[in-house]
Design brief:
mainly beta; four-stranded antiparallel β-sheet; 47% strand
């Protein structure tokens, strides 16, 4: 069974940057990405990509500020978050699933593997 382990996250002031990492115990060509969930809100797909390349997904709210990438030698995907805003505050979960549309359409019930989650807090 694939296990995803997250690292990164923390607290930062608005305008700052953080990088999240998600390492997998094995390689998969499944779509890899991130969801986030703020208190009282639905889990939202943030960004996703296929390890072999192709279309990358970004939520409109993070487009131009966040960058997702994949290191095939480390079986790790990353989320570089720049120009962070207070509204980016949430628990971030890395995940893999058979199709990146799961992230685009917030179909988190169909996600196959989840990381443990890491808190990102942005203060004004």
């Amino acid at each position: 069974q694939v296990r995803l382990t997250e690292s990164g996250g923390g607290s930062v002031q608005a305008g700052g940057s953080l990088r999240l990492a998600c390492s997998s115990t094995e390689y998969s060509n499944y779509c890899a990405g991130w969801f986030r969930q703020a208190p009282g809100k639905e889990r939202q797909g943030v960004a996703a990509l296929y390890p072999l390349g192709g279309t990358t997904f970004y939520a409109d709210s993070v487009q131009g500020r966040f960058t997702i990438s994949y290191d095939k030698f480390k079986n790790t995907h990353y989320l570089q978050m720049n120009s962070l805003k207070v509204e980016d505050t949430a628990m971030y979960y890395c995940a893999t699933g058979p199709d990146c549309s799961l992230f685009r359409h917030n179909k988190y019930a169909s996600i196959t593997d989840w990381g443990q989650g890491t808190q990102v807090t942005v203060s004004s």
